[in-house]
Protein 1
Amino acid sequence: MHLRSRHPIRTFVAGLLALLPLAATLALLVWTARILSSWLGPDSLVGSLLTRLGLGLTGSDAAGYALGVLLLALGVYLFGLLVETELQRGLARAFDAVMQKIPVVRTVYDVAQKLVALVGPGKRDGMPTMKPVWLHFGGPPAPGEPAASTVVLGLLSTPVPVLIGGQAFHGVLVPTAPVPVGGGLMYVPAHWVVPADVGMEALTSIYVSMGVTSGQYLETMKK
């Protein structure tokens, strides 16, 4: 088919669909940059502390902020070296003991610890990380029967179900596209949840691309 014979609207839609993954990626990067700027930028509370930290060695606010960020990164790196040694275990236990003695702080600290453990690469204190699951609304089909309900790819918050009205429910976090860091938490009957044989990278890619990359991680129909 010649280029002139192509319908302009169809050509425009084809170009738009091709640009959607790039647009979604840029939107996610911009959103992340704005969040980091509001938390760590020069005008934020942390940014002002970093600027004051660097002003002791320079007279410029911008140079002081940059130097403060550099000193903070160096401190994080040194702490990372400490984490990889046996000495970190004793310090972590001592730090946890101190945090547990502060009434209000210990609640926030416990929640932060659990969230880090859920999304971390391994386990901490026996707590497993989040796992991708298929959420079958109405329950999964019987073996050999076609699915008759909507299926959603989500994250199982914990493998241990909770009892609501005497029935077992799982907490499943359903992300949003194209920004998967948002979403909603749903408590659904435990038999609705089926493990998904995909990793976190696949789940993130599928949501960020709004399903465009599904064929890279999920089995597709043969033509």
Protein 2
Amino acid sequence: MIPRYQKVLFFLLLAASLAMAGILWHLRTRAHQRLLAGEDSVPTQAPEVTAAEPATLVVASDADGSLLPQDRALPLPADPGTRARVLLGKLLDVYAAPDAAHPVGGGAPGIAQVFLLPATGDAAKAAPDAQTAVVNLTGSFAAGHPSGIETETLTVLSICATLRANLPQVVAVRFLVDGQERPTLAGHADLTRTYLTANAVPSGGSSQ
């Protein structure tokens, strides 16, 4: 015969189990209702996309050593530093294309950041709001860049000219690689100096 205290304990445990099951079911129902309410509150309209606007990429050509402006319509952010990074990323995408006139691998990821700082020294005399762009290239981009004085110089000058064409307040450019100063881009073009954008003048007419 089962002792009385064991029967009492059994029924107490059974009651506790039923109560716990009821609580869990209630919590599950409330969680499901909250999930449905959250889905209903999500906006159904698509996120706003920045409208495309006129932009100029100054593209280098190895055939004749020229810098040729190309007019584009690009969606660009309002922040000048972010805008500069997007523009230079598009320029490097052109160089990474299979039919590039100035073939350089890596594309847009080769631009890590672009910082815009108040210009100093002679560069500051260009305009009251003159700025220096600090272009931080990635180490992988520099490592994969073709070596040669002309090809390296064309890359540097096309970056300077593209910044000048779209951000006139940028009068000077400094280059870093992975956040550090580096003697050259790929063995030749000097990255320790400050480049004046006024010296990076396109040598051809605009094209599409």
Protein 3
Amino acid sequence: MTEMDYYEVLEVSKNCSGAELKKSYRKLAMKYHPDRNPDDQEAEDKFKIVNEAYQVLSDEEKRSIYDRYGKAGLEGQGMGGGFGGAGMDDIMDIFNSMFGGSSGGFGGFGRAQRDPSQKYALDFEIELPLEFHEAVFGCEKKIDITYKTPCGECKGTGAKDAKLDTCEYCGGQGQVLMRQGPMQFAQTCPKCHGEGKTVAHKCASCNGKGYHEEEDTVTIKIPAGVDSGNRLRVQGHGNEAKNGQRGDLYLTFYVEEDENFIRNGNDIYIEVPVFFTQAILGETISIPALDGELELELKQSTKDKEQFVFEGEGVVDVHSGRKGRLVAQVSMVLPKKINEEQKELLEKLQESYGVESRPHKSTFDSAFDRVKSWFR
């Protein structure tokens, strides 16, 4: 049987960083989590191997052993079907960030314990695209959401007449004991997902899902300075629990690019095309800025790619309120063609500089002599 490579499982390269590893694990864990894939055995199996791979590769010592000796080298090192070892806290932090609940604000998820009888997570996340200026200055957005509400016919159980049978796999305990060498530990039952009960006959109203879906429109105030990857918690607009309480909605922002401004964190970069005569002679020109325009003073003999920095003209930091910089970078523009009169003027200009107008000559004279000496 071919052994599955942990790096391939997590879709990362062997020289990936810890941050890349965690990012990929988060994506795959969310994709295959049983809460998001009810009654899907294939997803459940993938979820287990993703966790197993991350448990090893997130631990520097285990990763080093795995890189040298493969999975066989980890026997007796705490490997197994459950969570354990140095990666445990990291895994639980990521789980809490994806499926937690009550605390929050701008950034991460909360850490509320989930009711095992709840058929779905109360919090959910959607990606919200923003135009460049909406992210920079903040805005108000109306978004359409679809959230889950428990089925009234089956009281959220997914079972006909809300009648549930005791889970045969765990005997109604909601947990099963796993053995790893001399160690024994409890793991959530994979069949009933910790409920201790299973559905014998599906509810006709919700087809056994235990919930219906409702549509709503929410008005969200987006703070100035958000960037792609930032998340915003919106309290009370998540899925509805059996007791009527609502979870939270989490927005992950995707900011579209601008035609002229390039954003790097709180700094803004803009390329300024400058004709070669402007760069030689020097000139004061107007350039666009986030709040209007700025005066850029080109000194004589400005170089191509030279940068001019304007402090406090960038994007406001969403946490501290401080503004970043605007960096204007010169892009030298040369004439695409010249007429006879322009050519004559340029030749006269070049001659007026004498030896200085041919820097290659003084630079390469000694090189030419040295090369000739090689063949004497």
